From TrEMBL:
PANTHER family linked: NITRONATE MONOOXYGENASE-RELATED
Protein name: Nitronate monooxygenase
Pfam families assigned: NMO (PF03060)
Listed GO MF terms: dioxygenase activity; nitronate monooxygenase activity; nucleotide binding
InterPro entries: Aldolase_TIM (IPR013785), NMO (IPR004136)
Keyword match Metal-binding: no
Species whose genome carries this gene: Izhakiella australiensis
Cofactor(s) named in the record: FMN
Keywords associated with the record: Detoxification, Dioxygenase, Flavoprotein, FMN, Monooxygenase, Nucleotide-binding, Oxidoreductase
Amino acid sequence: MTTSLCNALNLQYPIVQAPMAGVSTPQMAAAVTAAGGLGSISVGASTPAQAEKMIAETRALSAGPFNVNVFCHQPVVRNEALESAWIERFNPLFQRYQVALPSGLTEIYQTFHQNEPMLAVLEKMRPAVVSFHFGIPPAEAIGRLKQCGIVTLATATSIYEAQEIADNGIDFIVAQGIEAGGHRGIFHPEENDQQLSTFTLLQAIRKVIDLPVIAAGGVMDGAGIAAMLTLGAAGVQLGTAFVLCPESAANAAYRAALKSEAASRTMMTSAISGRPARCIANAFCAHGEQIARHEVPVYPLTYSLGKAVAAAARAQGEYGYDAQWAGQGAHLAREMPAAELVRRLVAEWQQAAGGVTPVA
Ligand SMILES: Cc1cc2nc3c(=O)[nH]c(=O)nc-3n(C[C@H](O)[C@H](O)[C@H](O)COP(=O)(O)O)c2cc1C
């Protein structure tokens, strides 16, 4: 049952629980790691102090390796006219929910690019793994993490991004297909997106790049794991499959949506955060459908308004403006403790693989 991912981290199973900002928790990551997979937390939406606390909390719950995820989006360039027009567009919604229209958009998260305080926290805390989403940091930061013995992962949505990851000495590529829930890790969302499926992207990367690949997007059960490993993946990364676990921070409305018929329809939208992300098709997605891509301000400025809209709606009992991230396989999500889910996935995978040992 061993793959290069298992060997690099001494894992029992090549199963990564995806980092999910706002959903994954230290409890979830620790449970997955204890069950033999790789648990993850995301500090992309955290300050360095919050990140340090979250890493310490995870470590206190788990003796094994875990992954800490950071966001590497391009530094924000302001565009006052675009931002004002964006705020104004939401005036009717704020009026409906009787909340004052925000006066401006704010940069709610700092990118990991040139983020010395966050890098210092990672150097100090030395998690076994650090993963990058939305791009990769400068070579110096990667080098410093590697000097600490940290294994690095980065999301790619195309072979070009995968090549950049390989060229910069990162250890594993997380191939994220268009099926995936949550934010697409695309480096430059303003550029043409080929929107490859996990199935195709994994094979395309494997054909041209000699670096182990972790498949992410649409894997919901053991048969899916067997399929990805058969195609040459060194591991799989599952996000949506873990959202219903009791260790998840998802709220009751999000859980109810995932368990309902609504989960069979997800949509890619940039309207919530400023970057394309796959969400259960809710009121916010419908609102976003009428908006051209070039009218949307950059991430995470847009997200500051997205969160304000969601909070205003929630206060009136409307949850359809929440970021209910989910992949195309959302209707296959199962509700059970994270460790039990890992055990179930492994049993299904063994059954599907018919005793064949993966070697990627
Ligand atoms: C609720 C949710 C939040 C996510 N947040 C992050 C994140 O903070 N960082 C990250 O690298 N990926 C994030 N992702 C994407 C996952 O890493 C992964 O690519 C995706 O979940 C795989 O597709 P699946 O949801 O079909 O399993 C998120 C996914 C979900 C469902």
